[in-house]
User: Fold this.
Amino acid sequence: MRHGYFAKIGFKHIKLEIMIGPIISSGIVSPAWDNIFAVILGMGFGFALESSGFSSSRKIIGTFFGYDFVVVKVFFTAAIVASVGLLYLSYFGLVDFSLLYIQPTFLTSAIVGGIIMGIGFAMGGFCPGTSLAACAVGRIDGMVFFGGMFIGVFLFSESFPLFENMYYSGSQGAKMINTAFGISPELFTFFLVLAAVGMFFGAAWVQKKVKKVEY
Amino acid sequence: MERKYTILAVLLIVLALGLVILPKKKELKETDPKVLLSAITEKLRFLSADLVTHRIIEKDPTLMLIDLRPATQFKAFALPGAINIQPESLLTSETMELLNQPGKDKVLYANSDIQAEKAWLIGTRYSINRLYILKGGLNEWYNTIIKPAEASSTASSTDLDLLSFRNAARQYFTGAGQTNETSSAKAPVKVNVVRKAPEAKSGGGC
Assistant:
């Protein structure tokens, strides 16, 4: 969306436009750029994963054994920085909140999928993105994990009619967690930041108590 | 925890607290008259009965149907999943919060276009995005989906496909098997509709 403001300079009226995001949904950039942005962002994401050490399954599995909480810290940091940033950008009129794409919630499949992914995460020491980062740097365990994931995706796709009803059940639409709690997004973000900071200190405390693992 | 991380944590808490205590923005931001005028001339604000029906059958979670008719008519019959909002309560804070939900296509309908057009104008003026009108209202929807016209002998394959979709949709909504049946629309009956897998969209996660 563009907000127009008119300025009178001499005898001419010049329209000054302030662009606000999201730039694709608001029509500032053509949707044809969608995949190009996806590739650029994906490369950046992969680079960040690798540079944070996420291509090591031992680093990721450290969360479950209490010797390395970097995964939890990185994802919580991403969540709170993005939430606070988006709300400020929206407050100052630089992002149109209503144009953001919200992933629809399907409760049953989210719970079942979450359990399966959690088990895979704990067993393999990777999630889908980090396994690709591990593949990229030549780690064998990452390649095995990615192969297994690919077989799982293939089997799920082939047997989709069996799971279809479960897949679509519990549809909640594009639901925001703050509306589920009946509070404003700002208040929810404040509580989320408090919880994240509490978790950062808690994780540091646990890490001190647990025997350091060299890897 | 290292000192630099403690400082960053405190900074984030202060920023988040700032969000809570900042004065709330004016609830209703008005659209620039020129932008509004240009939106009025756009035909894209109308969604056809076929398209809306397709999205209802697909159980599209981004679709929000808003029925603007009186509550008595709404109770008698409404499109599946529709919410009844009276035009006079369109600008209340509860309704505005509902209409400003992100990620939803809000489709307004009444018996004809007139009421929905008025509501669309008010909503668009107050910067509600992704607001649409069911073209022709419930009357056109009924004539298109529940009482579809017979195909002419020279109908193209596209027209025949469309008619076949309408017949399937009619069965979805009424359970009836015959074309041109005059029975009114009843409560939706579950039929086996082959759904397409949802389009892959960028999601979160790692």
Q: What stands out?
A: The helical segments of chain B are 3-21, 33-41, 49-57, 71-76, 93-99, 113-125, 137-146, 157-174.
